[in-house]
Design brief:
mainly alpha; 2 domains
């Protein structure tokens, strides 16, 4: 359910673009993101960093897209979001006892070596950088329709493929405790 909730503004953007145009789609993603963040804050009393970063970028780049009637601004949003995540993962590698990926997953997954978390964290950094670059390539070398399709299907496909690849890597190092074995 959370994945669908996080994905909803992008899906609405895609639908609005297909029915209307890039400017209506940009207005839709702005409204949808504001509602998404507002709902999350109302329900949980806090805003996740991912939602806050996305909200600020959607408001600034989407606002510039609408104000200047220049779709190039909204095309930069996925790249900036991905590079912001890459930077956050990179900084987390050197600040604190655990990197960002380990903080997110170590309550659910126990691995045999801490180096696994470092490798996975750096893999995510590289992934976010590459996806940001690929977004720019598609955005500025293909028409807007191709970019919108890539934004929805291409980025989702790349992310799913990357997560599956990481799962194969991770399964070699997962530690199953004795309690878990009893349930199997």
């Amino acid at each position: 359910m959370k994945l669908l909730f996080d994905f909803l503004p992008i899906l609405l953007f895609f639908i609005a673009y297909k029915v209307y145009d890039i400017y209506i789609a940009t207005a839709v993603i702005i409204v949808a993101t504001v509602i998404q963040v507002g709902w999350h804050w109302f329900k949980n009393g806090k805003i996740e960093n991912m939602h806050l970063i996305t909200l600020v970028l959607v408001l600034v780049l989407g606002g510039l897209t609408l104000l200047l009637q220049d779709e190039n601004f909204i095309k930069w949003k996925p790249t900036i979001v991905n590079w912001a995540f890459a930077l956050a993962f990179l900084v987390s590698q050197f600040v604190g006892n655990k990197n960002l990926l380990q903080r997110m997953l170590d309550k659910q997954i126990t691995v045999s070596y801490n180096k696994v978390w470092t490798n996975l964290n750096f893999a995510w950094i590289a992934f976010f950088i590459v996806v940001g670059i690929v977004n720019l390539f598609v955005a500025f070398n293909f028409d807007t329709n191709t970019w919108v399709n890539f934004k929805l299907f291409g980025m989702l496909g790349l992310t799913l493929a990357f997560v599956i690849g990481q799962s194969f890597y991770l399964t070699r190092y997962i530690v199953i405790d004795d309690e878990s074995k009893k349930d199997i």
